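Hey team,

Filing this mostly as a record. A colleague (T.K.) asked me to run one chain through the structure pipeline before their review meeting, and I want the input and output archived in the tracker in case anyone asks later how it was produced. No errors, nothing strange. Just documentation.

Input sequence:
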Amino acid sequence: MPLVVPGLMSKDGGSSGDDWMSKLMGKKLGDQHDEVYFAKSDLPKEHRVLKPDSMYTTDHKPERLNIHVDEDGTVKKVVKG
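Output structure:
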């Protein structure tokens, strides 16, 4: 069952990158939630995790959540598109 976080959904039914950044910033992605990890299963269907120096497409998908992580997997930036 996905995590329901009040206030995380925007008016258009999606969620804003800023809301996701506040939830993910400084955390790692894992199987469940705790002080250090955010559960991957609770991310939107359209997402991708971008590691440093990884190649990725530059196509713009407004509904996609781009999660930028550092070398140890800690979230450093979250943007939509």
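Quick notes for T.K.: The longest helix spans residues 17-24. The chain has one domain: 17-80.
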